[in-house]
Amino acid sequence: MAERYYQPEIETASREQIKAWQDERLVKQVRRVWENVPYYRKKMEEKGVTPDDIKGTEDLHKLPFLSKADLRDAYPYGLMGAPLKDCVRIQSTSGTTGKRVVAFYTQADIDLWEDCCARAIVAAGGTNEDVCQVSYGYGLFTGGPGLNGGSHKVGCLTIPMSSGNTERQIMFIRDLNATILCCTPSYAAYLGETMKEMGLTPAQIPLKAGIFGAEAWSEEMRQDIQKTLGIKAYNIYGLTELSGPGVSFECSAQTGMHINEDHFIAEIIDPVTGEVLPDGQQGELVFTAITKQAFPMLRYRTKDICVLSREKCPCGRTHVKMSKPRGRSDDMLIIRGVNVFPSQIETVLLNMGYPANYQIA
Ligand code: ADP
Ligand code: ZN
């Protein structure tokens, strides 16, 4: 089957075109932030950088980082990049690691976010003939609203289920012939197990694709879900600070997630020194949002550890791919000067046939 794209001219643009978009948008965004966000301007002044120093992506490294601590410091309105009258929505994180993050959106911000989610749905094979059940939570959490908007853009018949009430979830999937399921991978696995216990075989489940994210999941879990539900399961990644799900998404190749580089510039840094690392090296993912207005994060440290790859993808998309996050920089250990992540030790153990229960002593 020929690969389909939601925005082909963007998703398959040449690398030169992507770089040109990034350069132009970055320069504009830095100026906007300098003029509208005193909190970040102060950080730039402390580093001795002005908007004149930023002429393109090669100057990105000159800008100061933003971190979760800055978001707490500036809570709630201190990092807004657009006047309140232009903002139409907030979303917020669950706040499991401290104070909630409150992110703001203009209508244009919501639009670009939903475009990103629509790209993910089309990459998973979605069309306007599909019935898309969105079983991420709705409300402050970004999962439900993001995929809901993307599903509308694709023209799917959208079922705004939200999470919970498994019996009703299964009833709607079966009664309405839902073909696409969007939820967390753990909930997808649970739905699959429940349907299996009900005696349903994959052939009796109308679903054909799933878009699962918001938490880490393994390749084994993917295989399990694909088998019990009889679907192809795609990963989607994002964070509230950058809009929500859809910052990156998997294509038919299912080997890493294409980052929507027309909106987000990705860098990989050494989490200890802050130094930018070349593609292919593992480190902390840092994003610069170049089109967002209300919450324009520059060099935001995600704490997610991963690798970027610019190898040609068989799907035809040209945007850089990120591996799924392999852990958090907070979990990193430094052993004899070498950065080590528990997830790397886990992979070695699993490959050697040991169980995933271990203690690093
Ligand atoms: P909350 O804190 O409420 O979960 P966030 O939007 O802050 O909401 O969650 C974003 C984080 O969730 C990311 O930084 C990443 O660590 C994790 N995450 C999101 N999608 C994925 C994914 N597909 N795989 C692994 N981790 C993910
Ligand atoms: Zn691809």
Task: Outline the structure in words.
There is one protein chain. The protein is an alpha/beta fold and 361 residues long. The protein folds into two domains: 8-325, Rossmann fold, CATH 3.40.50; 333-361, no CATH class. Helix content is 32%, strand content 21%. The chain has helices spanning 8-11, 15-36, 38-47, 68-73, 107-123, 143-154, 166-175, 185-197, 219-229, 342-351, and strands spanning 87-92, 102-106, 131-134, 157-159, 180-183, 209-213, 232-239, 244-250, 257-259, 264-269, 283-289, 300-306, 308-309, 321-322, 333-335, 338-340. The strands form four sheets. A nine-stranded mixed β-sheet has the order 4-3-5-6-7-8-9-14-13. It has a three-stranded antiparallel β-sheet with strand order 10-11-12. It has a two-stranded antiparallel ribbon with strand order 1-2. A hairpin with a 4-residue loop joins strand 7 and strand 8 (244-250). It starts with 7 loop residues before the first helix and ends in a 10-residue tail after the last helix. It binds adenosine-5'-diphosphate and zinc ion (ZN). Zinc ion binds next to loops. Residues 251, 253, 258, 313, 315, 317 line the site of zinc ion.
